Amino acid sequence: MYGRSNNCCLITPEKTGPGTGRQCAGLSFAKEFILKINRKDINKKEIVFVFLFVCVLIVLAFLPTGFEKQIYLHSEGVQADVVDVDNTGVYNNGLITQGAQDCKVRILTGTHKGEVVSGTNYFSGKLEFDKVFDIGDTAWVLLEFDDGNNIISANMVDHYRINLEVILLCVFAVCLIAFSGFTGIRTLLSFAFALLSIWKILIPCMLKGVHPILAALVVGNVLTIATLLLVAGFTRKAYTAIASSVLCSLVTCLLAVVMGDIFKISGAVMQWSESLLYAGFERLDLTGIFQAGIYLACSGAILDLAIDISAALEEIHKNNPDISRKSLIGSGITIGRSVVGSQTTTLLLAYMGSYISVMMVYMAQGTPFMNILNSKMIASEILHTLVGCIGLVLVSPLTSFICGFIYIRKKKSSVCTEGARNLAEESLPE
Fold first, then answer.
1. DSSP readout, 225-290?
2. Which residues constitute the domain of residue 209?
3. What confidence score (pLDDT) does residue 105 get?
């Protein structure tokens, strides 16, 4: 049409060389992407939304939380290699290690890069907090300075794991994009948005005294809407999943508040809650934070099931446009019955996995099973699990009903139009 070949590029013997294949592959990908936009395989509205979403992520990344003040003055956290260790000051008291481990480290980052200093690794007597360094380990070290910027002490904080975390994140991103393409990119954006929203908005708001339930509801609903629009686009299946997810999440939030009060479980059951009070936040509503956490955990599972059922029903309606509303709703409920079982089991395993050591302690001590169920810690996990399961059970029929009314409504109007057209043709004189 334009006097050009539809091929990306023509590789001739003269043109072959390093990078030629990569250039053609890149041009082919770009051309395919543009053609998809022109064919409306990729909605232009979604492209604009993704661009705006990236801008929001950038703003969130640089948004101050109000808690950036440095606790340790005249100090700097650095990465360092352990070049020597001295364990003469370490002694064992039964299963508990006490004392201090002296280490020599070579600083890899910061203003004192390249220097070798002596650091101290103190043992607190708690296995979950203590760490042991060996020669060749990479550590995260807190350096303290005097007024002349000279190092006066080096505290061995922990092993350095950031590089491994980044590698694992990159592997996850590559696998996701390789499998899902552009949808995988949108999923990564949703993942980043969830992390930044919780770290930059939810947690600071709670620390500043905003009611935990209110803060969790706002952040949770925004995350639900943004995630589904990113993953599913501006489609009916996304709108359906959003409606059912928000409604079911509200129900789970209400259940978390009501059942939490009935169970008489306070927020003190959460890890580090007491430390939070002693850190100067004694006026925080720990129980509200606990209930908000239940809601957030359940909203993720509900979101997942809602989009699964909505996408399945969209495919059913697409392949069978003449399906009735009753049949479509019945199909959704049938799918939900098959999926809910695995989803609730997944939820149970997730919560039990995080508390497996606690249950092992109870069993090892011969604690009666009724005592275990009555313990505050186990009862809180039971509350977590059952509230989430109730939300999963509710989301299946609700999503099915919403899909039935959204997908079939347009079909009925088209049937009426077709019937009117046939009636008009029959009334015409021969």
1. HHHHHHHH-SSHHHHHHHHHHHHHHHHHHHHHHHHHHHHT--GGGSTTHHHHHHTT-TT--HHHHH
2. 181-412
3. 94
